[in-house]
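so my prof wants the structure for this chain in the tokens format not the other one, which i didnt know existed until like an hour ago. anyway here's the sequence
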Amino acid sequence: MDERHIYKQAKERLEKKKGFYKHLSAFIAVGFFFLAMNLITFFNGDADAPNLWFFYPMLPWGIGLLIHYFTVFGLPGSQALSEKWEEEELAKEMARLRRMQQGRIEPPEEEEEGLDLDELEKEKEAQKQARPGWQDEDLV
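here's what i got, hopefully its the right format
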């Protein structure tokens, strides 16, 4: 990787983090505002019937904030879906495609119905040669 590419990736990651922290700040500010409005109306209204409504708009927003956190930072304590995991999986897939392009491995063929008896017989003969003295009944 060249420096420009590394800088671009770091800048994108920083922007994602900044976006999450802005989202978190707005969530906290609006949450306190809703709580204050709710408490003011609660104490000025009918105290016999408590109604804490500020949870209703904050709960779905909190779920959205949690999803935003997971997309930016990944699952806590897990490497699944993290940037490192993504880079490793990408490297594996690229290596597999390069090997396939160079003809080292065949692309997967569509599965056929039934057994391929010729392949089974070849495997059986290879087993016989690898283990002399074994009988056909010993081999599966």
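also thought this was worth mentioning. The mean pLDDT is 79.
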